[in-house]
Amino acid sequence: MADKPIKKVVLAYSGGLDSSTIVKWLQVELGAEVVTFTADLGQGEELEPARQKALTLGVKPENVFIEDVREEFVRDYVFPMFRANTVYEGQYLLGTSIARPLIAKKQIEIARKVGADAVSHGSTGKGNDQVRYEFAYNALEPDIRVVAPWREWDFKSREALLEFAEQHQIPITKDKRGEAPFSVDANLLHSSSEGKVLEDPAIEPPEFVHMRTIAPEDAPDKPTVITIDFEHGDPVAIDGQNLSPAALLTRLNELGHDNGIGRLDLVENRFVGMKSRGVYETPGGTILLAAHRGIESITLDRGSMHLKDELMPRYAELIYNGFWFTPEREMLQAAIDHSQAMVAGQVRVKLYKGNVTVIGRSSPYSLYDQELVTFEEGAVAYDHRDATGFIKLNALRLRVKAGRDKRVKR
Fold first, then answer.
1. Residues 266, 240: one domain?
2. Close Cβ partners of 29 (under 8 Å, ≥ 6 residues apart)
3. pLDDT tens readout for residues 218-258
4. What is the pLDDT of residues 151-198, one digit of tens each?
5. I need a surface site. Which of 195, 264, 287, 392 has the fewest CB within 10 A?
6. Do both 16 and 153 map to the same domain?
7. pTM here?
8. d(CA 140, CA 133)
9. Which residues are catalytic, by number?
10. Structural domain for 279, as ranges
11. Is 242 helix (H, G, I), strand (E, B) or coil?
12. What is the CATH number of the domain that holds 168?
């Protein structure tokens, strides 16, 4: 760390053991005034205890910030990401990745407000989140100092950390003292579980790991059918009821939970270079992805759709690696958003025992022309004989190559 002492630091604070220990470490070891920020991202936990815990750790009342950012999270981060049908390594819907830029942005805003000269997070030196937070800090406030305790403090083991917590009267729950069976991160889009009982990728995750869904085999024997309305690529209503972004995702989560939808057991490639195994649950997002692709199937032309599919892996990698606040992500976002101008209409979706099936789609901007695709006579815009020249021209290179190969073999 730089020699100049840090005076005031804004910490991303959950209220858990690790972030509470960090509060005290920043106070004791750095002599810094600590400001805590706790974001309500829809993680499903009561956040008031985090305020009380921060106060008991000596944080001044005016330095405890708790903000409900659920609507902003879904509107400005989740929905833009889903316009691209974003999936990392073919499966992961990036529930953790997309939340970090918003938390970092809020930390920077608070740092400016209170005159802090540093920000801090509780991510470990092995994970992706440290990168996501710090890329965002640098993009938004390049002169801010960053304190990453897990990379800086002298604790050599978990026991040493717990001893420090006990020394400073930080409550330690029994499961923490006995080592929690796995770690959990949650927000309105998803929950992720990693570590301990999940570290061996050859062993099936125990059922108790799952937080957001019932087991597909326990889901109702009767399918649930819903409609989702879209405007400019974003969902706006379920079964005809207009809902705010956060309320709509909440409702999709409920429907996904009840039908066992959105479970994922994944081994992924972290940006820092290692593989990790995680169990993710994204019930509402899984439904939304299928529905969005359904409405795009009739409103996007082939060129736009295929180009989006080519761009998507790059876009997903940018988000996963923490490059949300970058020119290249914004450039891709502009192209993606442009494609969504006429992605509007209604999709009918069947939910059944872990599966999401699009069973109907309609739009005032549909490109689907039943007269063109019908096998019956009457199509005036398509002459079957035109296909002869189309095939002959597109097969020209194949005929040339086949002729060359035939000559060479002789």
1. yes
2. 153
3. 999 999 999 999 999 999 999 999 999 999 999 999 999 99
4. 999 887 778 888 888 888 887 765 544 555 678 899 999 999 998 889
5. 392
6. yes
7. 0.93
8. 11
9. 18, 100, 129, 183
10. 185-300+343-362
11. strand
12. 3.40.50.620
